[in-house]
Amino acid sequence: MEKARLYLVDLFQSMGFKTKILKGKKHDAVFAQYTVHRSLPTVLIYGHYDVQPPDPLNEWNTPPFEPTVKGKELYGRGTTDNKGQIMIHIMTLKKLLEKNEKLQVNFKFIIEGEEEIGSPSITDIVRKYSKDLLNCDYMIVSDTEIPEKGQPSIDISLRGLLYTEVQIESGKHDLHSGQYGGAIDNPANVLANIIAKLKESSGKVAIPHFYDDIVPFSPKELKDFNKINITKDILIKEADVYGISNDETKYSLLERLWTRPTLDVNGIWGGYAGEGSKTIIPAKAGAKISMRLVPNQNSDKIYGHFVSFINKIAPKTVKIKFIRHADCLPYKAPTDNKVFNLMKQSLKKHFGKEPVFKGVGGSIGFVPIMAKALKVPVIMVGFDYSGSNIHAPNEHFSLSNYYKGIEVMTDFYANLAKS
How many domains does the chain have? Predict the structure, then answer.
């Protein structure tokens, strides 16, 4: 992590940028600034230099931390998420500066080191620096993917996240299931019953008021989503699963992935799971449960409804402990801003195909916080393509997309200056 920070600082300084380290709770962020003139528009480019652990190591075909070119792909941990994509933006500026281009845009970068652990320092950094250091007219993020090879896209939404843990306790220690079974509530059974009641058979979340504040996507945006060729068969192959769920089938597949909130059990523990048998009523059981939220859903409200619902349906014979692990706000871009048309023009010019708007099922913690603080549009344009094994062994990044990305961003900044 320290080597990555030092590399970025040295690279930016070699290009004439002023740099500053912004303190983080675990890992610091790197800030870099190149000011042409204060009267010109300023772009803030966000990325992250931290990556997921490389495990399981035995499934890698090349060393995860030794970037390796194979054919037209660059293999290694972080090649796509997010080092390769942030390097597109850095190299765009390096190219422009080396050509002695007369820049008509000011540039700022913030590259954090905590994105993969939920960006715990971002709120403090934004609060401290949003009025001066991070102040800008536009934000650009490349931490997403294009829907299929050769199809450029702009991401217009992110789902938020509410990550919780529920622990059920019936007593001080495990009990003999024969001696007490039938008279004492089993925390594992109670937990299973609670989980079963969190969702209806249709896939709809059963928590009262869960859907109250959702703002629907426009017909035009949904029409753009449905232009994207992601079918059930493609998704099954990409995810390497046996089939698609029957949750909320009245919505299209992409609407379910990008515009609908979800509730998922991420893990369950409790009782005896070792070799052989042990006939007990466990004293404790627990589950980690996450909810993906969509624009205008408030994580504080949803957490309150979640806690109230479980307390209501659980028997009074057990104690319940709730833990709130992580939050991330949802985000929806103001697609009527002219900057989105400028990005579409540049993407079409260099990909040779009309770009589409799409959504992101996951979260980028920095984006909604920064967009709210600065009140600026965030242009999320990814150059990764689906199936590049992010967070998995043999992560790779298309070198063709890397070079195209530099061309796109060079063209975009020229158009932005003209407009």
Answer: 2
Residue 246 lies in a domain: no
Nearest Cα to Cα of residue 47 among 395, 384, 418, 326: 384
Rg (CA), the chain: 24
Residues 195, 311: one domain?
yes
pLDDT digits (tens, 9 = 90+) for 159-203: 999 999 999 999 999 999 999 999 999 999 999 999 999 999 999
For the stretch 377-393, pLDDT in tens is 999 999 988 789 999 99
Nearest Cα to 79, choosing from 333, 349, 402? 402
- pLDDT-based confidence at 88, cuts 50/70/90? very high
Please indicate, yes or no, whether residues 108 and 192 belong to a single structural domain of this protein.
no
Give me the pLDDT at residue 365, please. 84
Distance, C-alpha 335 to centroid of its chain: 20
* Cα 320 from Cα 205, distance rounded (Å): 21
Report angle CA 231, 237, 242 to the nearest 5 degrees.
Answer: 100
Closest CA to 323 of 305, 303, 337: 303
Q: Same structural domain for residues 81 and 121?
A: yes
